[in-house]
Specification:
heterodimer, A: about 575 residues, alpha+beta, Rossmann fold, Elongation Factor Tu (Ef-tu), domain 3, 4 domains, six-stranded mixed beta sheet, six-stranded antiparallel β-barrel, 9 helices, 34 strands, globular, B: about 270 residues, alpha/beta, about 40% helix
């Protein structure tokens, strides 16, 4: 939301003990944002224990948080300056409570990473920055705290800022203000401090007021349907507009069905709330001209600007569950108002949160790990790339009753790709290997059984036997037309790779139509590859006769039509 | 969209999620300003209908005007109302003189938990706000209570991107908090903008008014000249006193509310 649309939501993140709660407590205290009652209560609690006033107690409300001196769960507090209103979100820094950090930070429009000047960036500092990039927080800044403990030295501040900005750059995070401060004594929180003679930048509060959050550039209408009401003679589709605008009379598409209709009216309980036009963030009701069967999870958009409808995509995910995510296990996926079952077809790689280096996965994603995965859904749902539409491009995964992970959609394998037999990210290969053929007694010709072609991606099981074919459990499909190789291992798609990156492994080879290749050795393979890549329409029959074995895996049954065989 | 409209839209979104995802649902109506705003938002969310019952947990110690206002609103809006009391504790003479927290636990927490079981609710919509007190500031929008109605506050489920906790084992129930992100002054500004009828006890008589409503013996008035909603807003813009300063049970112990709420208090 922009400046005129409510309060700016701001999260403070960082490693445990680097002083997030103290920074916020000091900010609230020095700006007089706290009711007297709250301060008195903390004075009473700290005096009882013989301690000095703890600014962190303003946020750490639970007894367990105060006795252990750590933030367990996220808190939100309102706070205002002369310039604008804020909601300040405190997020725990302890690795054990990363799920609570995410619950807080997912709501934020801007974030500050708090770093202890004595200790520099630590594991959770980096992990939190990584999470902020996945959560799509658009404005990020740095606070180097506890500068009093390093003698307010400019070099310490410069070194930490450089290191942090380097890390932000590799994450693609925006670099906002970087502020040296000392929260406990209060230097540079509200007022600029004389202890920083070398620093000409703003105090924290000045930096906050200078933050600019530009509205998201998402113009296309996305209205996920939460529910369909029929309390009276009206049939109302209810939902919240996640992006774009909607007017009475607009022609809309309702995904995934793709039916078109017109917006008849935008009803409301009170006459004064009835509108002709609604926009982003509004919870609306919608009556459409044609009453199709609509349900929760459908997405209303404008004709020609609809989301993709897909049952597989690539995503960056973080896992929060105590039980690791298991490749091939089934999880419930919730994306917008859609809900379906999802399977992780492949863990492409894990990402080390401290170095951002990819590393191979061993079939699972452990708690607090981040990974790139290929997901396969039980049914196709409306979905967008996260970079284009936030609300329909991110999802959570449930393990049992609990939200155990979340992710953002980075590549979609849409239905438009289905004519390609194999799809994985940008890689596509045509294939008729699993198509059924028959000799038509009426036509006296070989016909293909007409049915909706399926596409397969990495991790999918494939139908190894059909009416007109039977393949082994392990083999490689060489698709010369697209110069791609698909490797089938244990009856599943194991990989999809360009021909140039393929090494012959001695397994049976099949071409894109399901014919066996007469290849027995690496030497055969090199010659066959050379012949196929060099073939012309004139040489094609010769090359086929030399290298293809029609009978290896296929036979052609006889029939009259698709229905008879 | 301005701040109030953004709050309204988000609360309506939450109410609709609850109605769509949670089985048997009820709305806890304490007759105070917050749950009266909640009632208004429910009418907006469901186009003038209220597709679930309203529930009043009656301690029998409520300020008498509250019961009159309750029955007037129920009649005017045609609401389905459930009134529930811990009759056993009342017969045994439960009252604040037995200890404020003991009394709150018996007449509010236990009555509420008993009501939830009696009527088989899977979800209760409650008008608590983060700015009221510390343990509420840590709440989730959808917050599960186990079979013993306990809140496992150190181990709350992640809540992000408008995906709420709508799955839980049978026998658990979920507290739905559509007003969590509203502040006290937001509530009053919304009451003013929407012209929502609220109970008179909030308005100054003889230089005093209630700022927060509860049971008569444990709720103190504040000194105030605020006779209208806009007077109250002006007063709140200047005040430096906590909203619940007049609620005696909060002052019993530094963690009084955390302890009450762990056992199922709203």
């Amino acid at each position: 939301m922009g400046e005129n649309e409510g309060k700016l939501k701001l999260v403070f993140t960082g490693h445990v003990d680097h002083g997030k709660s103290t920074v916020i407590g000091r900010l609230l205290f020095d700006t007089g944002s706290l009711p007297q009652g709250a301060i008195d209560k903390i004075k009473a609690v700290t005096l009882e224990k013989g301690k000095a006033f703890e600014f962190a107690y303003l946020l750490d409300a639970f007894e367990e948080e105060r006795t252990q001196g750590i933030t367990i769960d996220t808190t939100q507090l309102a706070f205002k300056t002369k310039k604008r209103d804020y909601v300040i979100i405190d997020a725990p820094g302890h690795v054990e409570f990363l799920k609570n950090m995410i619950s807080g930070a997912a709501d934020a429009e801007a974030a500050f990473l708090v770093v202890d000047a004595q200790r520099g960036l630590e594991e959770q500092s980096r992990r939190h920055a990584h999470m902020l990039s996945i959560l799509g927080v658009r404005q990020t800044g740095l606070i180097v705290n506890k500068m009093d403990l390093v003698g307010f030295k400019e070099k310490v501040f410069g070194d930490i800022t450089r290191e942090a900005w380097g890390f932000f750059d590799s994450l693609g995070l925006a670099k906002g203000p970087s502020i040296p401060l000392a929260a406990l004594p209060g230097d540079n929180v509200v007022k600029r401090s004389d202890n920083f003679s070398w620093y000409n930048g703003p105090s924290l509060i000045e930096a906050l007021d200078d933050l600019r959050i530009s509205p998201r550039e998402e113009k296309d209408l996305r209205l996920p349907i939460q529910d369909v009401y029929k309390f009276d003679d009206r049939r109302i589709l209810a939902g919240r507009i996640e992006s774009g605008r909607l007017r009475v009379g607009d022609e809309v598409t309702i995904s995934p069905g793709g039916k078109r209709t017109l917006v008849a009216s935008l009803p409301a309980w009170l006459d004064r709330d009835v509108k002709d036009e609604v926009g982003r963030g509004e919870s609306v009701g919608l009556i459409v001209k044609d009453e199709f069967f609509n349900r929760r999870g459908d997405v209303v958009s404008h004709v020609g600007r609809a989301p993709e409808v897909a049952d597989s995509f690539l995503a960056s995910i973080f896992w929060l569950g105590k039980t690791p995510l298991n490749q091939n296990a089934r999880y419930r996926l919730k994306l917008g108002a859609s809900e379906t079952e999802a399977r992780v077809n492949e863990i492409v790689h894990l990402i080390d949160s401290t170095s951002l280096a990819p590393r191979p996965a061993q079939g699972e994603i452990k708690q607090n790990e981040v990974a790139v995965v290929a997901l396969r859904l039980k049914k196709a749902i409306p979905v967008d790339l996260f970079s284009k539409h936030t609300a329909t491009g991110r999802f959570v995964l449930l393990d049992g009753y609990d939200v155990s992970g979340g992710g953002i959609v980075t590549q979609i394998h849409s239905r438009a790709d289905i004519r390609h037999g194999f799809v994985f990210g940008e890689l596509k290969a045509r294939c008729e290997v699993f198509e059924e053929y028959y000799y038509s007694l009426g036509d006296m010709a070989v016909n293909k059984v007409d049915r909706q072609t399926l596409s397969y991606t990495v991790g999918d099981p494939v139908p190894l036997s059909g009416l007109s074919y039977k393949y082994p459990d392990y083999f490689d499909i060489v698709i010369f037309r697209d110069q791609m190789v698909v490797q089938i291992r244990a009856a599943k798609v194991d990989s999809l790779k360009p021909l140039a990156e393929y090494d012959y492994q001695g397994l049976p080879l099949v071409n894109g139509r399901g014919f066996g290749l007469l290849v027995q050795s690496p030497d055969d393979w090199d010659r066959a590859k050379g012949d196929f890549l060099a073939q012309t329409p004139e040489t094609e029959p010769t090359v086929a006769k030399r290298w293809l074995d029609f009978n290896a895996y296929r036979r052609i049954p006889m029939g009259w039509s698709d229905f008879v065989i | 969209m301005n701040h109030l409209r953004a709050l309204e839209a988000h609360s309506v979104f939450i109410l609709r999620e609850a109605y769509s995802r949670i089985g048997r649902l009820g709305l806890l109506w304490s007759i105070g300003k917050d749950s009266t705003v909640l009632l208004w938002l429910a009418k907006k969310a469901f186009f003038g209908h209220c597709p679930f019952p309203f529930i009043h947990v009656d301690t029998s110690y409520k300020i008498p005007e509250m019961i009159g206002f309750r029955d007037e609103v129920v009649g005017r809006l045609g609401l389905e109302l459930i009134v529930h009391q811990n009759k056993k504790a009342l017969l045994e003479g439960m009252g604040p003189e037995k200890g404020r927290l003991v009394c709150c636990k018996a007449l509010k927490t236990e009555a509420l938990n008993d009501m939830t079981k009696t009527y088989g609710f899977d979800g209760l919509i409650v008008g608590v706000r983060r700015d009221e007190e510390g343990s509420r500031s840590k709440e989730r929008v959808f917050s599960v209570r186990n079979v013993r109605d306990e809140w496992d506050y150190v181990n709350q489920a992640p809540e992000l991107w408008g995906q709420f906790k709508t799955e839980f084992p049978k026998g658990h129930h979920v507290r739905v908090h559509p007003l969590l992100q509203w502040s006290e002054i937001d509530i009053w500004r919304y009451i003013e903008a929407e012209d929502i009828p609220v109970i008179d006890l909030y308005f100054s008589k003889n230089g005093e008014r209630y700022r927060s409503l509860g049971c008569a013996p444990c709720t103190a008035k504040i000194k105030s000249e605020a006779k209208t909603v806009s007077d109250i807003i002006a007063e709140l813009e200047k005040t430096n006193v906590s909203e619940r300063a007049g609620r005696a049970q909060d002052q019993e112990d530094a963690y009084a509310m955390q302890k009450l709420r762990k056992d199922g208090y709203m």
